[in-house]
Amino acid sequence: MRKPIIAGNWKMNNTASEGVALVNAIKDNVKNACCDVVVCVPAIDIPAVAEVIKGTNIELGAQNVHFAAKGAYTGEISAEMLKEYGVKYVIIGHSERRQYFGETDETVNKRTLAALEAGLIPIVCIGESLEERETGKTETVLDRQIETGLKGIDDISKVVIAYEPIWAIGTGKTATSEQANETIAYIRKKCGETFCPKCAEKVRIQYGGSMNAGNCKALMAMPEIDGGLIGGASLKPVDFAAIVNFDK
After folding, report:
1. Are strands 121-126 and 160-163 parallel, antiparallel or unpaired?
2. CA distance 234 to 11
3. Which end of the chain has fewer CB atoms < 10 Å from its terminal CB, N or C?
4. Looking at residues 239-246, what average pLDDT do you find?
5. Does residue 66 carry a catalytic annotation?
6. Are 231 and 210 a contacting pair, CB within 8 Å?
7. Exactly one of 59, 96, 128, 164 is catalytic; which is it?
């Protein structure tokens, strides 16, 4: 059985003090969760949040990592820097990183390999745009992102994959539970063909297309969906707790 994982992606929100207040508002309401609970916070919030989650079941995640161990990479953060503060997970290849900051499948691969080497758990984001879905290119896009972005990984089960249908994020369009499940099933099948079937069955694949308190139960009832990468709802304590407690 794959243990579900709900990860909040705060994006560029919350000062350190606001982040502490948010964690304090959710920690008691998620302490009996059946899933792994993660908050992926802005880099500047990591030290403060690392302190406030001590003794809780909440794990710490970052939103990016560089592929080099050190060097002349102004503004970047290495895996070892993250690990020193107790970071366990790191988001890689988020659609916003690809859209605004030039992330490619090749750089996603380099960051993912660096994260794994350092003992971090990558949450690797893949997914198609609205144009790509409407023109029937979803599987082609996912194939490329898996083959290139996850190239050279020895054990794919050490990676969490987040399926982000970009067309369902902030567009007013939504994927049905069945659509999300069908595409995630394809991702698992592709991982089985690219790596090995047994490993693919162990890979946790999240849905990252605007999961919220209203649709989480239906999505999490789908057999292929192993959790969610939560954006806006992760900033609302009641909503995030409701998603984490989807089984109640």
Report:
1. parallel
2. 10
3. N
4. 98
5. no
6. yes
7. 164
pLDDT, residue 171, reads: 66
DSSP secondary structure, 4-49, as one string = PEEEEE--S---HHHHHHHHHHHGGGSTT-SSEEEEE--GGGHHHH
End-to-end, the C-alpha distance of the chain in Å comes to: 19
Cα dihedral sign, 29-165-91-145: positive
pLDDT at 172: 60
Among the options 66, 94, 103, 132, which is catalytic? 94
Q: Which of 84, 78, 93 lies closest to 60, judged by CA? A: 84
Residue 30 to residue 243: CA distance in whole angstroms: 9
The residue whose two tokens read 């054990």 is: 155
Task: State pLDDT tens for residues 9-43.
Answer: 999 999 999 999 999 999 999 999 999 999 999 99
Name the strand (E) or helix (H) holding 228. Answer: strand 227-230
